[in-house]
């Protein structure tokens, strides 16, 4: 986490292969992804990564179930509807499979996005301020789902957030400032994280590659 | 192939309304292409069934076209230009044709006007009696005509009467040798005399060949062709014969070809261009969706395919839906042309599957091509960037795009020069080409131009209250969106103004020249043509100082050289009278040389023609007389009022035998009273003559106005379509403005300002393009600045601004209303 403009989203997008770093390299579980072309990156995202964004996560034209199955469909595989029902069940939306995103609340939409991220059994789930637009209660539900993906499914979740309460769900919190890692914290309560956030960072850190 | 993702179908099924804009654009595209295609095909295949020649299976006639040959070897191209008048053939060929195997008889046929002051109607159509062999006319009383005799129709005269008839060869008395069993103002003369009476001794209009029993038309045509090989004539059979009978068919084909081919080609390009822009807009509006798809695992290829699949799903139904109105437009246009006499009544609209298929295919390609191009952008950009890109528009015109845009601009300017050197239809064609190139430049440089005009016109808005300020800011930052609405407005304005004002300018200049150039006191005209002695009669009238008889016709003049050779039709006034007399009744505004020696093979021409042909006083001007005969008279004067009076002024005598009607069209009289002249025909003053309606000019005006309406209307619909699409796309933004405290009125005011800005900028740029086209071209054709009626121009401007306002206000109101109820 870090203040606005500290490079959180850029870091996440580079790490997820959504954008390319101008310098340095990105390795994902031992795989060098910096030199990959768009097709290889796409393939990688389908197989090993999941995404949850702050907003506009779902295609309005598809049903909830179709949105969840979208990565499978794009991979050219036969959509496994049982698996979709299973994942939707895990996020508590088993009964909404046939609805359109427009008919769901913001929290429900984010849960659908989590379900979609989970459908491919990803190694890493990238979440870019997933609770930024949600109220505290709903945010907790979504964060709980992400936590569960780590604890039960063994995935890694990389989440960017501004909210110390959300950050407190993580095992490890990294702080960014001016495009560079400034500090880190293992575990920690919202209060400690908030205190670290407001502490003055060392300035003059060279901006550049980080990993 | 991978499994289809089904994304396209889902997108369309979920929100058909968001594809309505694309659908409409593709529908309009199919409409224009199919309408023009039908007219073009009709032009290519038009035929009239033979009436007079219905029972003569084979007709031999001279070639009614002159050819422009450009290039050589394999690149040789021949363009056929119909001759202004009938080309005739050697009547002696009839004997040769009759000797062909399978031929029973061959009749040289003549058709010519005959004036008969004493008979009802006053005008007869003369033929040779030999034609009765194929027309089946029989003498019900009396006998066939010999020399100095005539056979008339029923109730015209009695056998043995003497009638005075006047033909191109003069007035003389004929004895009525018989009465034919046919109605109507007809006269038959002895075959040996007919050619001379018609004014072209030894030449026939056509030769009708009749078969021996047991010979069919195809066999006969083949044997006649063989018998006449080397004489350069054409042998016609079947419906082809109708073209010989009705010379209007050649012009009708030209007209239809012009509308369907030349205009249709440009309209089709415009339609494709606009539809392509709409498809691209619709894709760019969903950039966020594509970015999301990319993030969750869609390859660039899958995105492109999804966009292409959408196009494939929308284009065919849109194309098919456009066919019916396209058919309607073609039918309406064709009927109008027929009613106005531009197309012979017997010609039928030719409707086949071909143009319809092409229209649907054009729509499909239009949707696929730009869809693919537009899909490249979201497909190529990295998803992270795309998600960011979608929310904030960035102005990044590609280098290639800018270079192409500038090239189109340069091409437009260069072609402006070409159009300045041509006249009439060629000029109109070149003008449309100029507008096209400028439009291409606007399309390519659109975002830059839109940004520029937003900056410029936005300046006064910034200080004008919150709504105006917001409008200025929106226009500046969303240049691409602005450009997509701005381009069709420029298009509509430029096309409509160029076409309409080109015509008004020419008419205005011609009218002005005619009024200034006609210095005669009286003009005598006669719908039946003036009697041969009318001039001498008028000259005998006391007080008359000078009389000149004028015959109006056309010649073809070769213009340009090499690849750019063309044949231009030039109006001719064939005058009877001396150059000095002509100067009494017309002020041609002689710029060079003198009219004194006019006559024989010494002619005077208008300065625009002199410039186009690159000839001056003392040079010889090669040209084709109305019937295609080559001539190369000497230019002795160059004058300035040819547009109103006649581009070429030549001796009437040198036209004799080369025109079908040998009767003069007008007498220009100087001095004396009007009263005694009324015996010769209708007498008007110079002013009255100058302001008389001209059917040709009216047809021309109607044709250009229709073209302007079709193109302008199309562009207007495209503009409205785009504006509605962009407003609906801004739903979220408008509701946000509502939420943060803008009143409905403020939002609407903001949109009004934006729409005003885009339409004003469009009108100004469109007018600039029209001006850049019209000024050099009018200097070339009329030597003056274009004439632009303010009322017409004002209504174009008002229509553009009004439509843009409506197109923004109506959807915005709907969006805001939905917000309130929801």
What does this structure look like?
The complex is a heterodimer of chains A (211) and B (822). Chain A is α/β, with parallel strands linked by helices. Chain A is built from 9 helices and 7 strands, in the order αββαβααααβαβαββα. Chain A has helices spanning 8-15, 38-48, 64-68, 70-74, 81-90, 106-118, 136-151, 164-167, 190-198, and strands spanning 27-28, 31-32, 49-52, 124-128, 156-160, 172-177, 180-186. In chain A, β4 (124-128), α7 (136-151) and β5 form a beta-alpha-beta unit. Chain B folds into 4 domains: 1-48 and 275-392, no CATH class; 58-248, no CATH class; 394-511 and 694-822, no CATH class; 521-684, no CATH class. By secondary structure, chain B is α+β, with helices and mostly antiparallel strands. In chain B, a hairpin with a 6-residue loop joins β17 and β18. Helix content of chain B is 55%, strand content 18%. Chains A and B meet through α2 and α4 of A and α1, α9, α10 and α12 of B.
What is shown here, in short?
Chain A has 211 residues and is an alpha/beta fold. Chain A has helices at residues 8-15, 38-48, 64-68, 70-74, 81-90, 106-118, 136-151, 164-167, 190-198, and strands at 27-28, 31-32, 49-52, 124-128, 156-160, 172-177, 180-186. Chain B has four domains: 1-48 and 275-392, no CATH class; 58-248, no CATH class; 394-511 and 694-822, no CATH class; 521-684, no CATH class.
Give the largest interface pair and sizes.
A-B, 29 and 29 residues
Our Rg estimate of chain B from Cα atoms comes to 33 Å
Distance between the termini of chain A: 14 Å
Largest sheet composition of chain A: 3 strands, parallel
Give the SSE string of chain A: HEEHEHHHHEHEHEEH
| Shape summary of chain A | globular
Mean pLDDT of chain B equals: 82
- State the helical fraction of chain A: 25-40%
Identify the notable features of this structure and list them briefly.
heterodimer, A: 211 residues, alpha/beta, 3-stranded parallel β-sheet, two-stranded antiparallel sheet, globular, disordered C terminus, B: 822 residues, alpha+beta, 4 domains, 9-stranded mixed β-sheet, 7-stranded mixed β-sheet, 26 strands
